């Protein structure tokens, strides 16, 4: 592992460097490659040169993006990278950029954009499409297409509206796909990526997240020094918990954790954090009770992004006050701020290190920290995905109840309580969520599920209870499976369990008289409702 060449994320040498042209799927490409045991890293066009020198990758993948290559301000690379002899795969916009850079032509697609599942016909397979069926379903998402290929390229596959769905110039090791192999909707997309990464590029498949524990401990000690102390905001979720235990492993009692009770927690959340980290792990833990402050700041606010911004701002204020108290008692050495930031958090929140990707949503633990906080960030998980963090947790012996716990968003129930946040709305949601978790977990149905929770809608409907008419809010049950939250499929629980959950919520929770089921996948929907 070498020093960072792109931001603060450590760089591994070798593997696959992915250039983010603005696609929302860029992190998914990186994740798919890591699943093969090959390290991958994302950068943006204006940092490619630096990253090529720092990382020395075995291959380059150019992502899709929302722009058209013939626009004056469209993202571009130095065409020189195509002359290095490095295996290159262009996906969607990446293919179109390669085409234009090498003298081909890209035009608007005939009949408009092509979006969704498409049947692709394979002709000349080559190594890239080796093992792919003659007819296979792929996921398209583009408004332009390749009208004329550069010299040396051959068509490998096409669809009815897309004459060039896959192409190759084997002599220069340059390949292109108009479809997205990284999404699960492309039935044999993983095979295509494996063909490129393992066979064409010859990448070593020996990268394993559990192997990096010792290296991360070394890096934490190197950054913090022999006397430095770290203050960490502990939520009790997988990310901050693994980060806390990893930092504690590195510096011991010089770690000080702050748990902010924002009033947006699930039932029993605060008590569980105190029992596990203070009593079992013996980590210094301070609890800041800010429930009323958060609720007062959120009063009258219904816009989801405004809610996230407010929660982030108030969290920083509360955390800063708690950190100041710790620093006053531990001195100037407590100048390090620990966070459980993950790679997808960085990509989604800061648009791929400053690239063209549209920000999906704000994360309260990424960016936005005031300069006067005057603390140096310690983020040992910043180059990892969620299931890689879980694996590190297992390597360190953390209990399954923590490592395999379902993700819970930083803003808590605020993003599952649509509309204005009040305690009168939060408490029914908190009770409904507890019922959902209890019924699913007591039957062992949570194994294999990514998340399962309740959502409260600001929508009232008529009901009948005890021969009387009611007019109360609706509740939605959301159950999904996923490996990394980049894509997700909805899951159907047994009918008797659904019936039990619905009956309990309607009978036991005042304020809710209707339970609905969310059967939307990601994409196009997101897992959380806000």
Task: Describe, in plain words, how this protein is organized in 3D.
This protein has 530 residues and is of the alpha/beta class. It has 3 domains: 16-200, Class I glutamine amidotransferase (GATase) domain (Rossmann fold), CATH 3.40.50.880; 209-403, 3-Layer(aba) Sandwich (Rossmann fold), CATH 3.40.50; 418-518, 2-Layer Sandwich (GMP Synthetase, Chain A, domain 3), CATH 3.30.300. The chain contains 15 helices and 20 strands. It has helices at residues 26-35, 48-55, 93-101, 189-200, 213-224, 238-251, 269-280, 291-298, 304-330, 343-349, 351-354, 386-395, 400-403, 423-442, 495-508; strands spanning 16-19, 40-43, 59-62, 88-91, 105-108, 114-122, 135-142, 144-148, 154-159, 166-169, 174-177, 230-233, 255-261, 284-289, 336-338, 376-378, 451-465, 468-481, 489-490, 512-518. The strands form 4 sheets. It has a 9-stranded mixed beta sheet with strand order 2-1-3-4-11-10-9-6-7, sandwiched between helices. Strand 18 and strand 19 form a beta hairpin. The radius of gyration is 25 Å and the shape is globular. The relative contact order is 0.10. Residues 1-8 and 349-368 have low confidence and may be disordered.
Identify the CATH homologous superfamily of the largest domain: HUPs
The percent of residues in helical segments reads: 25-40%
Largest sheet: 9 strands, mixed
What would you call the shape? globular
The secondary structure category is alpha/beta
Please give the domain count.
3
- CATH class category label of the largest domain: Alpha Beta
How many DSSP E strands? 20
Strand order of the largest sheet: 2-1-3-4-11-10-9-6-7
Q: Can you tell me the CATH topology of the largest domain?
A: Rossmann fold
Radius of gyration: 25 Å
The percent range for strand residues is 15-25%
Question: Which architecture of the largest domain does the CATH hierarchy give at level 2?
Answer: 3-Layer(aba) Sandwich
Q: In oligomeric terms, what are we looking at?
A: single chain
Distance between the termini: 37 Å
Number of helices: 15
